[in-house]
TrEMBL record:
<dbReference type="InterPro" id="IPR036880">
    <property type="entry name" value="Kunitz_BPTI_sf"/>
</dbReference>
<dbReference type="InterPro" id="IPR002223">
    <property type="entry name" value="Kunitz_BPTI"/>
</dbReference>
<dbReference type="GO" id="GO:0004867">
    <property type="term" value="F:serine-type endopeptidase inhibitor activity"/>
</dbReference>
<dbReference type="Pfam" id="PF00014">
    <property type="entry name" value="Kunitz_BPTI"/>
</dbReference>
<protein>
    <submittedName>
        <fullName>Putative tick kunitz 1</fullName>
    </submittedName>
</protein>
<keyword id="KW-0732">Signal</keyword>
<feature type="signal peptide">
    <location>
        <begin position="1"/>
        <end position="18"/>
    </location>
</feature>
<feature type="domain" description="BPTI/Kunitz inhibitor">
    <location>
        <begin position="42"/>
        <end position="98"/>
    </location>
</feature>
Amino acid sequence: MQLLTIFALLCVLGSTLSDVKRRHIKALPGFNKISYTLPKRCKKPAIHATSTCPNGEEPKLRFTYIPGTKKCDQFWESGCGKKNINSFANFKECMTVCNPSSKCLKTPTQHRGIIPRITSFVFDINTLNCTTKKSLLKPDIGPQYNRFLKEDDCKKTCEPNLQIIITNSG
């Protein structure tokens, strides 16, 4: 009877879980979790602009996902020629599509205590920088929190490599 119940449960869960192909699901205790499948577009290398287009269209700054670092970096995309599929208008869109479970996308938790004693770092999705936060108690850290004990860990995990724009003022 127990075996039949387990079999029925597996049949129900199996069909439910097979429908979810690109989601990161936390498993029940004692079971392995189903890992997120990276969309094909996020695996493709970006095609960087090397010049302006014959029609005079200037390259545009976009974001591309780098599987090796598990984050998005900025690059110059040409408006002519072959279309980039691993190209996004902004960092948040890129990370949401390619690494939706990233702690960099999580809203930082509020610091605890009125006397700042312990330093930690959080990634600000609006400025694309890691910022210092202080709290009385040791902050919650881990994959479910946008909080790091070391600034370097925050930068390596979340901060994108941005392109420098040089303009001629004269």
